[in-house]
Write a structure and sequence with these properties.
- By secondary structure, the protein is mainly beta.
- The chain folds into four domains: 1-30; 34-166, hypothetical protein (bacova_03559) (Immunoglobulin-like), CATH 2.60.40.1740; 169-308, Immunoglobulin-like (Sandwich), CATH 2.60.40.1740; 320-468, Sandwich (Jelly Rolls), CATH 2.60.120.
- Helix content is 12%, strand content 43%.
- The chain has four helices and 35 strands.
- It has helices at residues 2-29, 77-87, 123-129, 218-226; strands spanning 34-37, 41-48, 53-62, 69-75, 92-93, 99-101, 105-108, 114-121, 136-144, 150-151, 158-166, 169-172, 176-177, 184-186, 193-196, 199-202, 210-216, 236-237, 243-246, 251-252, 258-260, 262-266, 271-273, 276-277, 280-291, 295-296, 302-309, 320-324, 353-354, 365-383, 393-401, 408-414, 423-443, 460-461, 463-468.
- Strands 13, 14, 17, 18, 20, 25 and 27 form a seven-stranded mixed β-sheet that branches. Strands 2, 4, 5, 7, 9 and 11 form a six-stranded mixed β-sheet that branches. Strands 28, 30, 31, 32, 33 and 35 form a six-stranded antiparallel β-sheet that branches.
- A hairpin with a 2-residue loop joins β23 and β24.
- It starts with a helix and ends with a strand.
């Protein structure tokens, strides 16, 4: 029993020595307390022009945390001279009227980790300095008189604060046109609703509840449309009844430097009657009209949201070919099925209608499509075959009819070359129609170049498409 007790005492002694040793190693591994500036070197500082601007300069105390300390911040022109010499710069010492140090010193307890020197800058005086083209900085040195705590490396105790004066502004995150060429789309489904969220932001840390107001500004849209080149898409002003601005979202709450404005768009506002919509490309031009605090960014006060409501692509199921005056199967009994007019309705760009090829007839060539019901048409188009050597159609037109006998031309089309405009979509005002007629009046290459247009041509078209309800 005594033997076991002696072994226990020996083990306890070894453990105690090991524990003390580990504790000593741990103390050795930990750094002594030290002080340093969280940011050092040349520091670009934003100063907002709202009267006296208080800048916070953080000081860090790290290490074991065994000591309290008092640290001072002094303006030291020798730091500026050394920086200019090392970096080949010509910064000037900031005049006394541009700043003031609010505290001469900071006191750290053993447990303190970070504190801030507060420096008041005068934006008006700083702005006046900018008129002479020189750049001014405030060179500061961190100093302590406490022998038990040291300042970290020299470079972490020095800073040159270079303030730039900014106007405190509110504005849109995306000024100007939003998503050029990619509109927000409203569908023609019953009671379709689209909600958009323009982002409104301030360029400073927001310590207040800031309210603002927005307006729909048609002049901004006119200016945008007027800046476009010929042929570029222009937008119509969104009808007043098509949108609702949630004014309760016109606020940036304290500690938030951005929020989202809520705007609801409704499909029913575009419905003229049961069979007619005001389809088109619209835009909602928003302008920040007022703000409860500070100013509005003149470069970001307007955003333009493009809105599109377009006729849906019509299903061609049930459509039939009523008549065609030039079909390759009229002259070749075993012609491929890829050549017949029915291929215009199969939604396959690799199949196509081909006009007579052995003995082409004179222009025009046409194909008549029966829609099987009365439809409201807003757009018609065609697609040429995937094979770019095919096509050869240069110009023509679409016409429509309600009875298959009386026809109205609604839109002309033309192409610059056989490689361009392989797909065309042609808009027009709403037309009621039971029948569509696609007409080809000219081609790029003729059957007999010597005879020209009178000799006819071989043409191919893959699809005829319609948009409407």
């Amino acid at each position: 029993m005594k033997f076991k007790y002696n072994i226990f005492l020996m083990a306890l002694s070894v453990f105690s020595l090991w524990f003390v040793s580990c504790d000593e190693y741990r103390d050795a591994d930990e750094l002594d307390d030290q002080l340093y500036l969280q940011k050092s070197g040349l520091l670009e500082a934003k100063v907002f022009n709202w009267g006296t601007f208080t800048y916070e300069l953080p000081v860090i105390k790290s290490g074991k945390g065994n000591h309290s300390a008092t640290v001072r911040l002094s303006v030291d022109e020798s730091i500026l001279a050394a920086y200019n010499e090392t970096n080949g710069t010509d910064y000037k010492l900031m005049p006394d009227n541009c700043y003031s140090l609010k505290e001469g010193s900071l006191s750290f307890t053993e447990d303190d980790y970070r504190k801030f020197f507060l420096i008041d800058f005068d934006p008006a005086s700083l702005t006046d300095l900018g008129n002479d083209g020189l750049q001014y900085v405030l060179p500061c040195l961190l100093v302590t008189d406490n022998a038990d705590i040291r300042i970290a490396e020299e470079d972490k105790a020095q800073i040159l604060i270079k303030p730039s004066v900014y106007q405190p502004y509110i504005g849109f995150e995306t000024p100007g046109i939003y998503r050029t060429g990619s509109e927000f789309s409203i569908k023609t489904d019953d009671d379709d609703v689209l909600v958009i969220y323009p982002k409104v932001q301030v360029n400073y840390y927001n310590d207040w509840d800031i309210s603002y107001d927005v307006e729909v500004n048609s002049a901004a849209l006119d200016e945008y449309n007027g800046s476009l080149s010929a042929g570029a898409r222009k937008y119509k002003l969104l009808p007043e009844g098509a949108y609702t601005i949630d004014r309760s979202t016109c606020i940036l709450n304290k500690n938030r430097d951005y929020e989202y404005l809520k705007i609801t768009l409704e499909e029913k506002a575009f419905k003229v009657d049961e069979n007619n919509y005001a389809f088109g490309y619209y835009a909602l031009p928003l302008k920040i009209a007022s703000v409860s605090k500070y100013g509005i960014d003149p470069e970001a006060d307007v955003t333009i949201y493009p809105i599109s409501i377009q006729p849906p692509v019509m299903e061609k199921t049930g459509w039939t070919i009523e008549e065609c005056n030039s079909i390759i199967t009229d002259e070749v009994e075993n012609a491929s099925s890829m050549d017949i007019p029915d291929n215009l309705l199969d939604n396959n760009n690799n199949t196509y209608w081909c006009t007579r090829a052995i003995k082409p007839i004179e222009f025009p060539y046409f194909v008549t499509i029966n829609l099987q019901e009365n439809c409201s048409l807003y757009r018609l188009g065609f697609q040429l075959p995937e094979d770019e050597s095919l096509g050869n159609i240069k110009s023509g037109y679409f016409e429509v009819s309600t009875d298959g006998e009386n026809w109205t031309k609604i839109v002309d089309w033309s192409r610059k070359s056989n490689l361009e405009d392989r797909s065309m979509e042609l808009d027009f005002s709403m037309q009621q129609a039971n029948y569509i007629r696609f007409v080809i009046t000219d081609a790029f290459e003729y059957a007999d170049p010597a005879l020209g247009k009178a000799s006819g041509a071989v043409c191919q078209v893959a699809e005829i498409n319609g948009w409407g309800i």
